[in-house]
Amino acid sequence: MTQQPFSRPGAIDLSGLKRPAPPAGGAAPGAPGGPGAAAAAGSGAVGSYTVEVSEANFQATLESSMTAPVVLVIHSPSRSPESTEYARQVAGVVEAYEGRFLAALVDVDASPQIAQALQVQQIPLMMVLLDGRPATQPLPGVLTSEELSTLFNQLGQQLTAQGITGRHQPGAAGAPAAAEDSDEPAVDPRYAPAQDALERGDVDGAVAEYQKLVDANPADAEAAAGLAMAKVLHRTQGVDLNAAREAAAAQRDDVDAQTLVADLDLLGGHVDDAFDRLIELVRRTSDADRTRAREHLLGLFAAVGNDDERVLRARRNLASALF
């Protein structure tokens, strides 16, 4: 698999989390009428791509992140009613992506062991899971709907750029979304050829496939992001990171040396570092070198997503460096 522009510190420690056995003669926790039913109704979340998480279905929810990202929102109706309202808000935004993400809402009053397993220190807390692991740093506090949309747009673009186009299947609210009866996650057919190329390690083929999509529809933001990221992968194939950094340190105004390290920073998830490096290069250079540095930076903006907050901030800094 190609390098991910996400922070993945490791799998969640579930050693202290045990699934409770259904009580004799009663419904399973979280089932209609069972001990977890009231808690499951607590956030009031309703939607095809929203699941109320309990200790009984937590593992299944984690496993569903093997198909597509799971947006885990930790809330507490008793300690912070606002956090429960926020959980509903996140679920509402996620629904608009039609399976690109699954909103997984955790009421820690009803499921304290989940909070312990996730080492939750603050409520509300949101984290995005992919392949059973955190795909972003945990995001404490409350984001606006606009900020949530920007975040999910960016994640969707980055995932598509890496050929990860699976989607959750719609399910009943309060139940984990089931994957299709297939060993492979659902794939948006538009991006399947590019994904197949990336899985084969054929970066040139992925560039060509994304280019076809962009040529056919220049407004396809995910295809444009995919093309930009595939080009980054193409430029960094076989590059020795340490040697590249040494060359950039020795040649501060060499456009090729600096842009290569910026590419590597982007792939490593150091987005701001990549942007800052090229903005400073624009500031120091002139004429053709300045144009090359600026155009390369614009390509990295496309790879990350033009609505991303870091891109918006970098654009302002670039304008300052130019004028």
Structural account:
With 323 residues, the chain is α/β, with parallel strands linked by helices. It folds into two domains: 1-187, Glutaredoxin, CATH 3.40.30; 192-322, Serine Threonine Protein Phosphatase 5, Tetratricopeptide repeat. Helices cover 48% and strands 8% of the residues. The protein is built from 13 helices and six strands. Strands 1, 2, 3, 4, 5 and 6 form a six-stranded mixed beta sheet that branches. Helix 5 packs across helix 8 (221-236). The relative contact order is 0.11.
The CATH topology name of the largest domain reads: Glutaredoxin
Helical stretch tally = 13
What would CATH call the class of the largest domain? Alpha Beta
CA-CA gap between termini: 41 Å
Q: Rg, please?
A: 22 Å
CATH 4th-level superfamily of the largest domain: Glutaredoxin
Number of discrete domains: 2
Main pleated-sheet profile: 6 strands, mixed
Short overview:
With 323 residues, the protein is α/β, with parallel strands linked by helices.
List keywords for this structure.
single chain; 323 residues; alpha/beta; Glutaredoxin; Serine Threonine Protein Phosphatase 5, Tetratricopeptide repeat; 2 domains; six-stranded mixed β-sheet; 6 strands; disordered N terminus
Task: Give the topology.
Blueprint: H1 37-40, E1 50-53, H2 58-64, E2 70-75, H3 81-95, E3 102-107, H4 112-117, E4 125-130, E5 133-134, E6 139-140, H5 145-161, H6 192-199, H7 203-216, H8 221-236, H9 241-250, H10 255-267, H11 271-284, H12 287-304, H13 309-322
Parallel strand pairs: 1-3, 2-3
Antiparallel strand pairs: 2-4, 4-5, 4-6
